[in-house]
Design a protein that fits this description.
The chain has 374 residues and is α+β, with helices and mostly antiparallel strands. The protein has 12 helices and 8 strands. Strands 1, 2, 3, 4, 5, 6, 7 and 8 form an 8-stranded mixed beta sheet that branches. It is elongated. This is Guanylate cyclase domain-containing protein.
């Protein structure tokens, strides 16, 4: 069985957010400082040849200093990102977050530069770099290196901020496949989809007003996010008060986990009923439709890009979900999905026979799914 990089990366990012933030920053900055050090090293050697100045130097200390700076700077920024985003500035202005982070990044870089200059370089690496020579860097040269480093770090900070935003937009584990062109052309996949839709949404919106209703939706989706990680579900999109998730079947050991996911969400909101009633005045409940089938995944758009799934599977799943009100059901799945499930003793599957779905000529077999009560 292939390793699902996207699902594993997403699961790790949610389970270990601080470590994940630090790993992203340290990896990027180690590579970035390695590039900078190599540029300076070969530039110095080039100018030495132009002016016929022999500078017997070793490249090994360059690698050491790059790794040290990248590790320390990346770890500092990873911690700051986590601390500012999740603690101090959660739900606050993005502009204020960027401004404060930029100030801290600048201060950290100044401290890092002088730490490297006064401690790492002077005490450990100077004699390793300039081999068997009394050559020394004048203080004026360090001033130029400081300015060059600040400019370089400024532009590299823009790049990593962009990469982090892309990672946030598409979700952890998607950026690398995206850069490798996995979704540049339509790619056929078999997936299980679930459409989760808030029950009585119109009533809730009318009762709460649009601002409080939006806060309710925000909290619901946040908790569904956390639950989805445990069950390996990938969030596809949010549409109003509905969230669409999926599982690639080639990475599923047990497809029954998809049913477990729905009831984990259902039981969570039942368990948190007092909390939701106190905070929002209503108890959110979700109806859902599930189906399995082939879809094509492709990157679409120009001004605004996203990874989209296309195919009849999505249409059928949406139509199945729409049957929940008619059949007074919380969860309805297709017969195609039911046929691949094993060890279903925890649930009761009630056949609804073949039913017509809006917009389709061919009828589809569906099942209501209930939890077995002990």
């Amino acid at each position: 069985m292939k390793i699902n990089y996207t699902a594993n990366a997403r699961k790790y990012a949610f389970q270990h957010p601080l470590i994940s933030a630090i790993l992203i920053q340290t990896t990027f900055w180690i590579i970035a400082f390695l590039f900078l050090s190599l540029i300076l090293h070969y530039a110095a050697n080039g100018f030495g040849k132009i002016y016929q100045v022999a500078i017997p130097s070793s490249i090994k200390p360059i690698i050491v200093i790059s790794f040290a700076m990248g590790l320390l700077y990346g770890a500092s920024l990873g911690f700051l990102d986590f601390f500012f985003y999740r603690k101090l500035f959660k739900g606050k202005s993005t502009g204020a977050l960027i401004l404060v982070k930029s100030i801290f990044y600048f201060l950290v870089m100044i401290m890092m530069f002088f730490f490297v200059k006064e401690i790492i370089w002077e005490r450990f690496l100077y004699h390793l770099y300039f081999l068997n020579t009394s050559f020394n860097l004048p203080e004026e040269a360090w001033d130029d290196y400081f300015k060059l480093t600040m400019i370089y770090v400024f532009f590299m900070s823009i790049m990593i901020s962009f990469l982090i935003q892309v990672n946030t937009k598409f979700g952890p584990g998607v950026l690398i496949p995206l850069l490798m062109g996995r979704y540049a052309n339509p790619k056929e996949e078999e997936r299980i989809f679930i459409f989760l839709d808030l029950k009585s949404s119109t009533t809730h919106a009318e009762k709460l007003g649009h601002v409080k209703y939006s806060k309710l939706i925000r909290d619901c989706f946040l908790h569904i996010n956390y639950i989805s990680v445990k069950y390996g579900a990938e969030i596809y999109q949010y549409v109003g008060d509905e969230v669409v998730l999926s599982w690639p079947t080639n990475h599923l050991k047990n497809p029954l986990i998809t049913i477990d996911f729905y009831f984990a969400c259902y039981n969570y909101f039942v368990e948190k009923k007092p909390k939701y009633l106190k905070k929002h005045g209503v108890l959110p409940q979700f109806k859902a439709g599930m189906h399995i089938g082939k879809v094509t995944a492709v990157e679409v758009g120009d001004v605004k890009r996203e990874i989209a799934f296309h195919g009849d599977t999505l249409n059928v799943t949406a139509r199945i979900q729409a049957k929940c009100n008619e059949l007074d059901a919380d969860l309805i799945i297709s017969e195609d999905l039911k046929s691949i499930l094993e060890n279903t003793k925890s649930y009761e599957f009630i056949s609804q026979g073949l039913v017509p779905l809006k917009g389709r000529k061919q009828e589809v077999g569906i099942y209501k799914v209930l939890q077995e009560t002990s």
